[in-house]
Amino acid sequence: MSESKQGIMDRFQGFMEEKILPFATKLGNQRHMAAIRDGMSILIPLTIIGGLAMILAIPPVPAGLENTNFFNGLLLGWQSWAATYNATLMIPYYLTIGIISIYVVAGVSYRLAKSYEMDGINNMIAALLVFLCIAGFPDGATIQAGQLGAGAMFTGLLIAIIVVEINRFFIKKNICIKMPAAVPPNVAAPFNVLLPLGFNVILFLFLNMLSTDLTGGGLTMLIYKLFQPLISASGSLPSILLINFLMTTFWFFGIHGANMVSVVVSPITTMGLALNADAYANNLPLPQIFSGAVNGVFGNWITYTAMLIVMLLMCKSAQMKSVSRVALIPTLFNINEPMIFGIPTVLNVFTYMPLLICSMLNFSVAYLLMDANIIGRFFVTLPFTVPGPLQAFLATMDWKTIIVWFALLVVDCFIVFPFLKTYDKQLLAKEAQEEA
């Protein structure tokens, strides 16, 4: 690498280490943001179960399909079976993605309480009660489950955080019903949380009534409208490309990029997934592009596969060949750590540049095709180890996503090749020098 290019990289590295990385690390470790990140992680198995149940209940059978061959007959048989048992098959969806905000409240409040070394269960139950009072709109003995879906997620996040903070304030100020010393701790514990629980319920009921009087809608609707511009902005192509730039750059410096950006991204993509799943279940157009694992499937998962192909077929150094053999199976299942630490990609401009270029290109193409409704949008979450092209199909139930995935893989191979070949020549020269 020339001295001028080396100087540019040194200045870039210095800027990132001095300005960006400390802020990103502080953001990732911030107590409330970490609680959101860790609390949202409990939703992954729930959304997988709910999404798979919905696929079974609503098979992707085109209208007017005729039983002219074995495959069509299989699809029509699946459709008939799903129609017969639809009510039962949809139960897991309704109780997972359909009321996803309940799980958001539970996970975030529990994680935040534990970070303060407070009782996780009591705080979780308190937050759930407050949330149901506001978002569930109890009507006698009936709770409207439709009010507990994706649209209430941001309300759930705020209630989970505020309820725990109010409980913590009461504990710090020792504001509680004091029981005699002879009362066993397990009997006294419920009374210790009674005052903050009552305060939280009254406070949020009052805010909900005030919001209804002033805006004509409850607190849930008000918060959703306030966050709507954020949802739209964060789901735009420039915003996602910025996220990909940061994520790839964090990996360049040896920091887990996905973990760093998940603090901000997870609530957005999870909400997008739930909104899309609800639209799919009701046979409506899917509204969100930035949803589920779309950024991974149509991002660097493709690029790492392209790098593996180039290393296997074109590279000659012992290091690249040995890494490619070890990484072959893991990479096919989206486990990229063998390549990340084997090549390595940390502080390696020959991998940073193609990863950055390809991540921008891959997602831009996928985004524009989804925006034009040429390929489907993600409405199902799958285990991250499901291979990329299969996951693209199952998450969208659109076979065209497989073609796009492999087309991008071919393009990525051409982009990756000159960078890896140059790096391979350096490794060959180094290995020859060491043998001499």
- The 3D shape can be described as globular
Q: Helical percent range?
A: over 70%
Biggest sheet character: none
Which structural class best describes the helix and strand composition? mainly alpha
Characterize the structure shown.
It is a single chain. The protein contains 21 helices and no strands. The protein is an all-alpha fold and 436 residues long. It folds into two domains: 33-231, no CATH class; 236-435, no CATH class. The longest helix has 36 residues, at 400-435. The radius of gyration is 25 Å and the shape is globular. The model has no long low-confidence stretch (mean pLDDT 84).
Summarize the model shown:
The protein is mainly α.
Topology:
Layout: H1 3-29, H2 31-40, H3 43-57, H4 70-84, H5 86-89, H6 91-94, H7 100-115, H8 120-135, H9 153-172, H10 185-192, H11 194-215, H12 219-234, H13 237-252, H14 257-281, H15 294-297, H16 300-314, H17 318-332, H18 337-342, H19 349-371, H20 388-396, H21 400-435
Helix pairs in contact: 1-14, 2-7, 2-14, 3-14, 7-8, 7-9, 8-9, 8-11, 9-11, 13-14, 13-19, 16-17, 16-19, 16-21, 19-21, 20-21
Key terms:
mainly alpha; 74% helix; 0% strand; globular; transmembrane; PTS_EIIC_3; PTS_EIIC; cell membrane; sugar transport
